[in-house]
Amino acid sequence: MAASNTLETIRVFLASPSDVSSERESTPGIINELNRTIAALLPNTKVRLELIRWESHSFPAMGRPQQIINDQIGPYDIFVGILWKRFGTPTGKADSGTEEEFRLAYTNWKNHGKPHILFYFNRASSAPPKTQNEINQLGKIVAFREELESRGLVWEYSDASQFSSALRPHLTEVVGKMLAASKSKTRTKAGKERVPARRTKPKSTPVGAKIRIADIGKRDGFYRDRKDIIGKSATLIEAIPKGSWFMGKVKLDEPAYKGDDMNYPLVEFKFELIEVDA
């Protein structure tokens, strides 16, 4: 669903069947981390993320259950879909609630350019299907994934414990771009669009250099997983001095996790210079 252009609240909707409960339970922690990060870096902003789930944003009513959920959830800015080995239960309009929710989000994205859609597939191994229904569920997932891959980019993660490591950097980047887009549309009282000042990177910042990640600060969303990142070599894409720390983006030379795209937006990190791009 397309949400208002006002970014005081960025609503993040989570869609999935019941077999990815661990991933659903870990998502509130990611949202809380990002809210703390935004508050620390932008103390004057009123922007916050709100996680939308049917179990917390729906209530009893009469009618087609999935339609009730759709109506009660309302508009949102980011859609996060997850599938593993269950596709879900038919709703009367689609083969599962997750599918109907995705199609609604996709239609709004095509018509209005939002919500931003993030879709994830858990590729952890599981016991062979025991029933025809389980076989059918897997078949629907395969067909649905093929459809999604023909329309855009989806993501894999190795198992439930790695979902947070996959979602966190993606959500950070999407939210960062939304905030930047909102800021660029700021207008003066006269009604004319304010042209953002061009940011000049400090001459001391060796952008394009080969570096080694030396430390991750407590305000960074990757702080809890810092042991998997500290010590790794990378290419420095952007680095803005913030006191004794830097904020910016790096591309690791090798993935920290399976399925990792190696691009990391970091809000508080230190690095050691290996070599500078000529």
Architecture overview:
The protein is α/β, with parallel strands linked by helices and 278 residues long. It has 2 domains: 173 residues, 3-Layer(aba) Sandwich (Rossmann fold); 76 residues, no CATH class. The chain is 33% helix and 24% strand. It is built from 6 helices and 9 strands, in the order E-H-E-H-H-E-H-E-H-E-H-E-E-E-E. The strands form 2 sheets. A 5-stranded parallel beta sheet has the order 2-1-3-4-5, sandwiched between helices. Strands 6-7-8-9 form a 4-stranded antiparallel β-barrel. Helix 4 links the parallel strand 3 and strand 4. Helix 1 crosses helix 6. The longest helix is centred in the middle third of the chain and has 22 residues. It is globular, with a radius of gyration of 21 Å.
Largest sheet: 5 strands, parallel
Distance between the termini: 47 Å
What does the radius of gyration come to?
Answer: 21 Å
Q: Tell me the overall shape.
A: globular
> Quick one: how many beta strands?
9
pLDDT averaged residue by residue: 86
The count of helical stretches stands at 6
Question: How would you classify the quaternary structure?
Answer: single chain
Q: Summarize the amount of helix as a percent range.
A: 25-40%
Number of structural units classed as domains: 2
CATH architecture term of the largest domain: 3-Layer(aba) Sandwich
